[in-house]
Amino acid sequence: MRMDQKPQPPSHGLAACPNPECAEPVDPRDRYCGACGYDLSATVEPPGGQDRPTMPIAAPVWPEAPPRDPGSLSTLTQHPGELPGTDSGGRDLPTVPVRTDGPVAAPEPSAASAPVAAPAPSAPPTPAPTPEAGPEPVPPSGETVRGGGDFELAAPDPRAAVRVDPATAAPGADPGEPAEGTCVACRAGRVDGDGYCENCGHAQPRERDHMERELGTVAAVSDRGLRHHRNEDSFALTETSLPDGRPATVAIVCDGVSSAHRPDEASAAAARAAGAVIGEALPRGTHPQQAMHEAIVAAAEAVTALARTGGDGADAPPGGNSPACTIVGSVVTDGLLVVGWVGDSRAYWVPDDRTAPAARLTEDDSWAAQMVKAGLMNEAQAYADERAHAITGWLGADAYELEPHTAAFKPDRPGVVVVCTDGLWNYAEAAEAMAGALPADAALRPLHAARVLVGHALDGGGHDNITVALTPFTPPPAGAGSS
């Protein structure tokens, strides 16, 4: 993510220092009083416990789906008065490709989108801080990490991986996973002490260069890509159940802001926190949409907490950009599909019947989306601009105000939910393009399909880190409604 425009601090609205012993005139954008050093930003912080939700969360009542066109995607939030197919702010969700006039020539996709302030004339770019050395962050809970070592060479291409013959696999071993000390590229050779395969000579990746996990019906793959020295994406998968025993599947994907401080730690902390909170909330009977909202708030708090400490646990040095990341997540349970997001990581719906339309379920917090929404540019103009992927919403201490977006849907047919970072959707932006890249048997082999999507991004250039999680969705039997 590049930072084309440095966010400006929000105005505190004060004309004079609130310190009764000072009362010195101050500028609305000052952070501290120039006379006494009083922290002016403290006067505009919300009271403890307030997360400023974009909508009230009502009691978890799950009504039946409203009347709909048989050929459309049936959508519904738990609020009967809210229009189908809107996010938690009441905005219509896009059900058509972002671009309808074909690909638009645009600058090479950036590492990820950078947070910016409200639309304004272009400002000089802020140089990205030099990544600090330190221990490699621990991946989110539950992730399966491939390989070891400490090498800067490119990670193996997941498309070249060869599955182990189940007949030769060790008893009890997962046939899709290489044995301990086995090369992640050829899955046959032994890795020597220097971190190279004795069979194919491939250098083994660092622990976060390439990560894969399959948990029941949900699977995720995260890859460093071909241009970055490290992977700043992260994910968390959870399988849990509702109080009555009905299963629920959760996928969380986060994308670190590269131009911010410690982006890899930010994405890992956010994914870990969100996955833990939503995994605990659902069994208590919390409605999935409310649980998603709470998970995003917890993720934001986890990223904000990183700003108070350095990478080694010491107090963070003054200056620099606070850790930041985007987030997108999905919950699939009992015929209900819930998504939540902040930033420009996305969720897509792809039906198993590819003659039915696919849909994008999220709306980017980005400069281009804001320009189109305001009517200042059409989609072709906005996405051709070099500022197109600069984000206007993110998790972190520098974010103006946390506004989690959530939406709930009740599809009437089986399909697959795709949640991903822009490292993938930059190469399959329209819903139809994402559906075209997704294998037809994705619902039956989600891990294989996730690898194929990562390969699609690598084929396109792999300019950014790539992370995708896939969850199959099965509607309830005809005549069976959710309670």
List the SSEs and their pairings.
Elements: E1 210-215, E2 218-223, E3 233-241, E4 247-256, H1 263-281, H2 288-306, E5 324-333, E6 336-342, E7 346-351, E8 359-360, H3 367-373, H4 379-384, E9 395-396, E10 405-409, E11 415-420, H5 422-425, H6 431-437, H7 446-459, E12 466-473
Antiparallel strand pairs: 1-2, 2-12, 3-4, 4-5, 5-6, 5-9, 6-10, 7-8, 7-11, 11-12
Helix pairs in contact: 1-2
Measured distance between first and last alpha carbons: 42 Å
Radius of gyration from CA coordinates: 23 Å
Instruction: List low-confidence stretches.
Output: 1-8, 43-113, 117-156, 159-177
Overall pLDDT level: 74
**What can be said about the biggest beta sheet?**
6 strands, antiparallel
Indicate the structural class: alpha+beta
Helix content: 10-25%
Which strand order do you get reading across the main beta sheet? 1-2-12-11-7-8
The general outline is globular
How do the SSEs run, as a string of H and E?
A: EEEEHHEEEEHHEEEHHHE
Tally of helical runs: 7
The quaternary structure here is: single chain
Annotation, overall tally of beta strands: 12
Instruction: Note the beta-strand portion.
Output: 15-25%
